[in-house]
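Dear colleague,

Thank you for sharing your sequence with our group. We've completed the structure prediction you requested, and as agreed, I am returning the results in plain text so they can be pasted directly into your records. Please verify that the sequence below matches your submission; if there's any discrepancy, let me know and we will rerun it promptly.
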Amino acid sequence: FIYMSYNPLRGRKPQLDDFVSVLPVRSKKNLISVKRGYLTHCVGQNHTDKNPSMGLMQGDNNVIVKCFADKCSKEELLQYFYDRLEYYKFKPKGKIKYFKRRGVNAW
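Please find the predicted structure tokens below.
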């Protein structure tokens, strides 16, 4: 397994700033900077909070999202971002062709 932060068909893998850019206005206004990320209002559908309760942090390979009020699942939070970030909207047309180069399977 080779980790690639750039996919030639999709572009660069979303980073923390990309996730912050698609937050609702309310969450952007109340963005609190912490050591390795941000604390903001949760984007969960059934969770309206008065105090920031969702954390966004840049991990080694991915952005980590967590609702500290434990009212929202990780899947629900990630779905919010997947629906809004172009990287995750990509759907190839037809079959994706794979080729082998220098012993590594690539796109």
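Summary note from our side: Strands lie at 6-7, 11-12, 32-34, 37-40, 54-58, 63-67, 99-101, 104-106.

Kind regards,
the structure core
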